[in-house]
Amino acid sequence: MVSPAIIILAVFVLYPIGYMVYLSGFEWNLIGEKVFIGLGNFKALFTSEEFLQVVVNTMKYTFYTVFFSVGIALMLAEYLKESRKINSILQGIIFTPYVIPLISIAFIWMWLMDSDYGLLNYLLEVLEINSVKWLEDPKIALNSIILVSVWKGVGYNVIILLSAMHAVPKDLYEAANLDRASKQKVFFKITMPMISPSIFFLVLMNIISSFKVFETVSIMTQGGPMNSTNTLVFNLYEYGFKYYKIGYASAMGVVLMGLIGICTILYFWALSKKVHYQ
């Protein structure tokens, strides 16, 4: 009964991973003969300043995207959990960006962040604040990508957290109300522990998806300016399908897989015991 699922997993997941690891030991351009070079691709990776900057960019993007996506979602969910008509409308507004195709969102934000005629700089001019080169300044471009990703993903996090909050037993809040507990204490002593499984799940999923960011970078900045927004998956794509360095790109894929695995294991080790299940 489970054999179809096992076959699909083997063909579309396990085999590609194994073949990627295999190719990482070769120098190959998709056309000529494969030349075995052992760990040569990994040595080239870890001695490349470009690749090290790409890893740093990816780690920064992942940390800030996850932190702000889940943090803002937690605050919004706490505000929206009350049964009010306006809250239903706000939930729809907040969730809408999540269902819009990422390509459309990227083009919309490129227009908003345009240095010459973008809406954001127009608003800054109205407020008599210096305009910002959102996507052209190496010091700001990565933050702009993070902003777009947070705006896109926060709605999904809000819906998940709202569902978790609505599942918290009401008698716990009633008991806290009888004890005259403050809102802050109720939130940190009741709400947070009770929804911790959902928070744990969301943080993990956000970490994995952030490591694999591609479309936003590809459309909005192409990794620039000055490599400031280049990430692992986009860099892998460039070397694999633009420069045809398949072995080098495969080595990047192995490193990416290793980083995701290490971060996931550390995350489980550090926080899984702090999750409270009913």
From TrEMBL:
It comes from the Bacteria. The keyword DNA-binding does not apply. GO terms for biological process: transmembrane transport. Its main location: membrane. Signal peptide: none annotated. GO terms for cellular component: plasma membrane. The chain crosses the membrane at residues 6-23, 61-80, 92-112, 140-165, 186-208, 246-270. SUPFAM superfamilies: MetI-like (SSF161098). The keyword Glycoprotein does not apply. Residues 55-267 form the ABC transmembrane type-1 domain. This is Sugar ABC transporter permease. It comes from Anaerosphaera multitolerans.
